[in-house]
Fold each of these.
Amino acid sequence: MARGNWSLNSLRWEVAAPFDGCEALGRSLRVHPLVAQILHNRGLDDPVAAGEFLDPKLTDLHDPELLSGAVHAAELIAKAVSAGRKIVIYGDYDVDGITGTAILHAILRMVGANVDYYVPHRLEEGYGLNSEAVDKLISDGAELMVTVDCGVSAVQPVARAIGAGLEVIITDHHSVGDELPPAAVIVHPSLPGGEYPNADLAGAGVAFKLAWQVARTICGSNRVDDEMRQFLLDATCFAALGTIADVVPLLGENRVLATYGLSGLKGSEHIGLRALLESAGLTGEKLDAYHVGFVLGPRLNAAGRMGHARLAIEMLTGASAERSREIAQYLDEQNTERRKVQDEITAQAVEMIESKGLHSSDRRAIVVGNEKWHGGVIGIVASRLVGLYGRPAIVVSLGDDVSRGSGRSIDGFDMHTALTSCAEHLEGFGGHAMAAGVTLDRNKFAVFAEAFVHYASSHISDEQMTPVLKIDATAELADLSYDTVHNLLKMAPFGRGNAAPIVLVKGCRVLTGPKRIGRSGTTISITLGQDGASMRGVGFGMGDLAEALVGVNSVDVAFEPQLNTFRGSTTVQAMLRDVRWE
């Protein structure tokens, strides 16, 4: 690897402008000015707003009565419960849908409802509400259907259900099309004409708010009884899983749900959640967004990706301890198989892209397909391709009758809008700005691919094509004391809309290393020094630096400050994101 102004992935560094009010804001909050700078970068200049951000409270949650359709839906559900009508919760097969379904199923069981759930098979039925499933539910005696994390674009299936006498309540958060389904009521955070303060509520968040309103309606008061209150507190664990896994912005009440849900997971008495944590080796551990996104979420998703999501819902809706452990172990095994399959497909997709030049500069999106690709993992493969090529990607599992695809986007490019422009080539599609699913006739794959690439190529700028590393502040190693980093970590959980803080320290001396560590040797360890201060840095996937930095004495490093505890001692550690030197 050649030396000289080297950057790990040819990243463009974008350093936030210094904030003149850092000192004053820092004094108000009793934090280091570096923390104040990063709060400013998140739009939190006001001491009150910044203080609320660092110390989120459940009282910051918006009243569910503000959520479009929630009051009416709760009244309809309460009447159905009272009349003993059969209620079916129709949930999506991802983590957001699974956890939202678990929330509504639990509260309806609490109040004695005749309730069941249904989740479509990802490969056989595809995303969302389908007419065949509606017919089956009706034949099984369903009288009220409540969707979770799906349905807002299912105009025809809902019309079919209503025509057959099935009452329908839609709860969803996906993008709203030109025509709404003719449901009895739609519960949605961003319906036209609605005034809900958080348009980015996840599907599980919508289900949580509806459950809250159902509890109020059943109790006959805005103040619920102690049993219902405890249920809602416990339900934040499920809402947190869905919110974080669905990659909605972790701001406002999403941040509140994520924070309280994560803190509650560690000590949860829920049999299914305990089995899930045990299978992942996380029993008793302090959990953060990483554990949801990369450890727990993939296990729950594995059920729907490799088989049927109904198993995951069974684990979270009343299975015995023995059965929950059995399911959790199965999900662990399925997740291992999922990783193997997705790695194989990713390698095949990359070979296809490279050999056909599908990543050329004039093609600002990637669409690839193959009849042998497992439809359950193509969304993950699409995410990997976005990371590798820095442009939107759609991966399609080609079928004889129906082909299904999954797409992921980049910041500033609305996937749903792009698909709308290509709708004439699709059987159906749904999703939001950053992720979407499509169904199409195999014979139209090529024309759809070209139409989507053409749209992207005319709407994505040169600047958007260059991967950016957003750096919050320039600092000195000495600034990053234990107390400062501890306060920085109060900004967690990190995710979309609230990225983990990244700082830039220039002119660090290479004291020791870097050396390769770990079984694969792709991780490096390095000790950095500056003006008497020193810090260990760790870089995953940076193994080549071990040779590239031989003879280099001074580097500029961009990293996430973290606290690392080893053998009872906690120190500040730099999680490297990029390294440069002259």
Amino acid sequence: MDAVADALKRSFGYDEFRPGQREIVDAVLAGRDALALMPTGGGKSLTYQLPATMRPGVTVVVSPLIALMKDQVDRLLANGVAATAITSALDSDERERREQAALRGEYRLLYVAPERLVNPNFLWLLLKLQRERGIALFAVDEAHCVSEWGHDFRPEYRQLGQLRERFADVPMLALTATATDRVRADILSQLRLREPLVHVASFNRPNLLYDVRQKSKGAYNELLAVLRTLRREDPDAPAIIYCQSRNGVETTCAQLVADGVRAAPYHAGLSAEERTRNQEAFIRDHTTTLVATVAFGMGVSKPDVRLVAHMDTPRNLESYYQESGRAGRDGEPARCLVFFSPGDRAKVEYFIREMSDPGQQAIARQQFQRVLTWAMDGDCRRRGLLAYFGETLAEENCGACDNCLNPTEREDRTVDAQKLLSAVARTNQRFGLGYVIEVLRGAQTKAVIERGHDQLSVYGIGATQSAEEWRHLGHALLAQDLLAEATSVGGYPTVRLTPLAWEVMRGQRMVEVARPRAPLRQARAADAQMAQMDGPARDLFERLRLVRRELAEEAQVPAFMIFADSSLRAMATRRPVTPPQFASISGVGERKVAAFGDAFLSEIRAYCDEHGLELWPEGGDIPDDVATARRERRRRERPERAERADSSRLRDMDTTKLPTARQTLEMFRRGLSLDEIAEQRNLAHTTLVGHLCDAMNAGEELDLERLIPGERLRLILETFARLGVTPLSPVKEALGDAVSYDDLRVARAALRNQQAEG
């Protein structure tokens, strides 16, 4: 294994790079500038985090949001990589402490906002850092914010080019997930990258299923049906629901809560404390669904989101790609649901009119029209998205969008189109689509009669079709550029004819329109990786998820920061027994072996023991602690002789030479409390509890009163008797803060021991 691959496994637990990562890492290690354009979930952060562990000096990371910095720092610390962020949320003492620690060389990575980075005082600190410790790299995350042509332009990013003047020898890496050709060129120019490696990865996210539906009064019920299908597969599957307005967020969230969904809102109208609380609840899986405005998500790197739904038409394809890309960042299957309506133009127009530059207003209107065209098109959704970024999809059928899985039939609607277009012309192109449809259907409204439009030749010629059918046709004509929307003097939306419309009216062009269809019903099949697991492996996987949740609760971090689902599946399938075997699992690095190995290995051994499964099926010697567990089972058959042998052996035993779980057991038997053992062995309380549970699963008798006070133990045992011994979550919910997960793990192990004896 070469040095780079070795560092990848040691620090981050991965056995191989994702596509494109190694090329970028090698360029950074060689001191070369680079622009990395990789999709959300493609592993951008590793391309600078791994070199930071190998190059001398500090890697300075520019990031736009405090939440984004915190997420990255937490992940690095979990992997044993020294990192920190200096933000406006810190008081002056803490900021000073971190700055001095950086100057002492205590960090490998330092995260800052662009505003701070170009501040004269902070620039002075960087110059001192460069002299005393060296700056290994400037990594500019979310680099599309540099460009005024991007969907999320930040003026302060434009100033980052001055870093090249002050730190001419420090390489720079720009990273983004969304950038058109024009935005890429602007990034290169503004940051003054010199002969950079430019890596443009595929924008294709094959694990995402795109489902686009025209919005109707039943949109909420359709959303609820999708959520319930998702939750039948996984009750805790995370979902993000985007709404255009605060009112939409509050209304949708209230409906979901009333229908039994654990949902929380997120929008600018909430206090900062409420937003933070709701965001943390979602990240840590206390809330399964977050209903939010599109302001949510840029600073959140939650990899296991299984659904992203837009209840309103996105403003442009670039922002939609980024928002929908928050689904399935772990590479697992996820769904992207969109409810669109040309009527959403009025909402979007409000934001467009807030722009001061008329040119930018025109671009925004064009971008929204392009979204509508994409939404109403019968072609592959994936092909349309990729084409926006200049990429071509080779396959005719992507197999993972509503149009490819449930193709629409197209029908000739030329005659009806001529009727509608004629009605637009006869009303002098001065009204909206809804009014034109009223004329077509012969509505006897006051407005129609007062304007004399009931005397037009087109009045009533469309009475046999419903308003909804005419609206569907009108939206199709807009998408095909046969109609265009404009704004009247009074600020009302109107429809007007395009040059192509006159060709239709003269009979020179045919109009085909997709038939309305039923919503896509995705099968409830589990993803391919789960489907390949046998029954015991799936059961063990669920047990390991519970261990992960308990450890996450104990450490007060999101569960995905412990291990990804893919790592748990590998553990459940391969069933490692020793730390080296555990370390061979993808996603398990040195730090995580030390921090979490005992807890997961204990659960794997206990499960295999309960079900008579072979440990580490691919073979290998049986480790000492497994052999010990087997001897303990045999000991139960000869208790008196074994106890006498144990008594003479334990008197002179050096426990430091025992396997780690056995050390804990012997120290506990000698009368030490868990706090004393934790202090002497420098291990977490939860890890020690795992050791003792492992011992009880192997048949050891322990004094439970020393671990759980009598009244609390009685309460736990009564609740277990009522609810069952697994999983622990229902028992914890029933008892609340009166007990800890460690209490429940100990009691469960004791009950299993009693059942085995019985």
Amino acid sequence: MSDRPLIVLKFGGSVLLDEQTLRIAVHEIYRWRREGWRVLAVVSALAGRTESLVARCAAVSPSASQASQAGVIGLGEYESAGLLGVHLDRVGVPATVLTPCAIGLFAAGDALDADLVSVHDAVVHAALEACGVVVVPGFVARAEGGELVTLGRGGSDLTAVFLAHQLGAQKCRLIKDVDGLYERDPAVHGPKPGRYGYASYDDALATDGSILQHKAIDFARSHGQEIELGRFNGTRPTRIGPGQSVHDNRADTVERLDVALCGLGTVGGGVLDLVSQLPDQFCVVGAACASPEKHVALEPLAGRITADAVSLASCGADVVVEVIGGVDVAWAVTEAAIDAGCSVVSANKALLAARGDEIATRCECGRFLASASVGGVTPVLEAIQGREVVSIRGVLNGTGNFVLGALQKGPRLHEAVAESQRLGFAEADPSRDLDGRDSLDKLLVIAQTLGWLIDHKHIERQSITEQAYADVIGRSDGNAVVRHVAMLTPRAACVRLEAVTSDDPLASLTNEWNAAVISFADGSETIVRGKGAGRWPTAESVLADLLALSRTRCGAPDRQEVVHA
């Protein structure tokens, strides 16, 4: 059994308004995943979907049996769970979608208001162990005869609370469109209702059930289980449990951050798209790029677009996002932002490899976060935080891994590179990816984070070429695959082509996927995986750093954030 803690997150229709807002669930899942939690996500149908399915049943057969209706009504949760799996895959977060049948989630009673009785917890634990994230549709379960049943209005709450208990989860958090549990709906006109910091089961049951299903509270009470209710990216949810109620009328509010976006290329465009969907959290006050005239259509989202990135970084925004790439201009932007007292979020591993030590000494008046600089959404920097590491071995460049996978199928190198560029995994000039400089920069960033000083005499680098690939294949057996392996120890760093066998954790990586095997001084090891190239994986990691900054501005975080500085 994994020693990583487990959180159950439930997302309801009040949060998942449409397919685009499934991104909110992705952001919250990645928030916990990159901090080392295993995540079980329980999802409701998208807003209005259940009602439309109920109406559809009534239109076909007003006297349809409850069992027949349940078989239709539950389809909304299957749809949202499947779509969430697709969205997680797009950003490169490994996840498995499991149905109630797959996990043996059984219920008994009324077909439209059943009660959960059992689950094959070993199936869920195995999936969590394999990839770290599991998505399950809420509200639906199987009856003993195999037919689909539903769990009553708000039944996804019950699914989440039941699974959290059965699986021994350390946290169960219900993500709603409110920041906590109130004595009554705070959106309804009238005197401001009291907000609970901690609510007893009885006081939670005294609410009208529109925010939190009473059956879920009853189940929690019968097992002495504590649950949480709060907002997306929240820091102070209401806890509900066996203790005495305590009011906390300080709302878990959002303090919107002004963002200056330096770079509107592949990654910068993705960051702009993501932050624009969170207007309560972020306001983009301006953007910088080499050719502003090409991006006039983005002005409604990006504000003033300028070619002067250094001036923009000095404008006094709360945070400057640097996704320009390279070193010289990026350093000028970073230096200007630090001097202006801004926080900085960067995806620039070349900048960190070249100027990381200087950034660390200059960053007293602001914070510098750079999770995206190593492996996209592969949480390498988070996994090493606070641990005594002895070595890291991995595939840290998605472009190179895609190209090697394509070479295995027979195309020439230039054809594999062209396909990688067509799919958005490779830049117009992919030389840093192919010759190992990109992976080496990431190793040096990791070394800086660990406080390791790597002498340049102990740095090796091998390029991906057709001849090098053929040489490695020729020395291997027929079952091996070739990977561009990055290896870091306290004294040395190297990037070279290796033939790895099927039992190697790096062998199963396909396309732009990355992975790192991290070995610790206590003899343990951990493996982190994720997509390491492309717009959405990198933009998601940048956004995760922005959301971390937002949490520290709004209140004490659930745990100390990982900061590279």
Amino acid sequence: MGGRGFWLELKRRHVYRVAAAYAVIGWLLIQVATQVFPVFHLPDWIEQAVVLVILVGFPIALVLAWAFDATPHGIVATDAAADGGVASVPSRRRSRRTGMAVGLMGVLIAAIAGGAWWQLRAPRGHPSGTSSASVTGARSLDEAQRNPGNATPDSAAKAASSGLRDDVAALPIPAKSIAVLPFENLSTDKGNAYFADGMQDLILTKLADIGDLKVISRTSTEKYKSHPDDLKTIGQQLGVATILEGSVQKAGNQVLINVQLIDARSDSHIWAESYTRTLDNIFGVEGEVAQKVADALKAKLTSAESARVANVPTTNAAALDAFLQGKYYEDHFFIPNNNKTAVDYYRKAVADDPHFVLAWARLAHVLSGIALDSGSDTDAAQAKSALDHALALAPDSPDVRLAQAWYLDYVKKDLDGALAAFAAVARSQPNNAQVLLGVGVMHGHKWQWREALGFLQKAATLAPEDTTILAELGVALEALRRYPEAVQTARRSVAIDPNDAAGWVRLGHAYELMGDPGGALTAYQEAPPGVRDNPYLTFNRARMELLQRNYAAARELLAGLKPTESLPMALIEFERGVVEQGAGNAALAREHYLRAQALQEATYKRNPNSDKLWELGYLSARLGQREQALTQIALAMREDAAKKQFSPFNEEGGDKDSMAEVQAMLGNAGAAVEALDWLLARPAGTYESVPLLRIDPTWDPIRHDPRFQALLKKYASARPEATGTRATSSTQ
């Protein structure tokens, strides 16, 4: 059979029709698989297997179409002659030869499909001494500068892995989720690390603009290597399906950026791209990368999101370089004077490009933080000036609204305004962890703990390694009296950063509210030796011993304790007095109280404020100076009431707790119980709990009063607060 005869035979046997029908149906099935399977979080191999079966089935369908002729009378063997007679031997031989050719074509197509599937399933690798950019064929400005030492996660990542958060790992991983690992700096000049950091951050910022994507925050990815091998584990830790890796090489005016998107579940490449630019035309690369990621993950962008992703923040090379350096210093808080240096670079950026909105927004944010710490009117005015410039340029920009939210929070103490600004940004960036943190904190300041918890829990899924978010989440859980969850959250935090003494203190506090000081002491023993000897942690260990009435152990811990800025000598002397009073050494206790009082009065004269007055009230009450104590707490309450016009951060629960303690020290059971009843009837579990009231020596002066005992019984059977404002916890 000649070539023309072969094609006529294909037509007569309806092979064309079968091929066309199969192609249409197969394409539809593939579309259904790729769109529907991710919704149910089915493993990738199922989707790939469906595609493979459809591809392999195509040549099989062609062979069957050749062997059997579909006619109006049904499917019949086509070896017979058209007139119903027996086919001639030459005809059957030609048919077999052509059928074999079609079969071989089918086998070839199936082999190609199988090879492609195997390639997609094969794990990617980083050969020793070669960066991922080389593996994907990207060009390098200087191959000799490649850094091969990226095969294993660093110690911080291992520490996080050792304390793997079960609640994060157990959550279903959305297909449209991504983490951007730190970009590797391949430049000969290691001082260009800021440039690699900055490009990663710009891409991350663009991705966070896409509401259809779950994007893990920078704080949760910065502890990983640029190109780790075990991406499956990292993907599980971070709760993402894909990971973006990258490297940046800057030499003079030339820049090479390599990026690759990897499926963390199968450890296979999705795509890789190289961008060779100069500093004068590098603008917009971050938007191009973000758009490619969105396309690869089939993320749907609104028109506003598309505009923000495509927006180029500046076309001034000097301004961009200064901005990236400013962001580097802002993010690296451990560098001395990092915020002041960041301000200098941001000022240079806006001087080079006065229309650089993002630089104005970051400048306003950093200046607001400086004003919060300093309390200086000059710093506050500078923050307002930077914010006004940003608002004038782009009042609806999410970056500007976020800067405005922090300004209202830090400088103006305008809780309602800050919450409204944060909420506006959250609507346009629903997966921005820092925005969700801001909304959660603002709700917490308004004692809307149920709402706060929801935002903080979502923020923690987007930034599972961010200990700041975990700290705020722990406060919300304690407020709602969900103490076992608060313990779990604090344990997540110390697993991420075992050297953070504050994390261990938060863990101990959660145990304390559960009425389990022994559990707190056991937990403290798990801290690294250097952290265990931290002065504040030592102070809290003494407190836990005191709650167990182990006075000798508490005395020993406090004996050699040196004061620090956050742990003044007045507080140490006060606690020593409490220990001696509990041990029955009244005269020695009075000596400690008098020393603490003298120190505290001197501090108050230098810096008069209500906090110092409350502490003076405690001391006066312990010394039996009844009228003086009542006068001091009344003055403190008046100052707090006045501050509430300006400061939403003065939480009324703190007043009630302090009032109850002072009244108990003075033996005023009625006033103390009234304040405690107010606390226990509300989500104020971070201040007091029934288990703690049962064991804390503070309440010994009124412990046997019937009103105090009735209070304990009233709230003994309550359940953890879940939906309302009434306390509801059995472990309350």
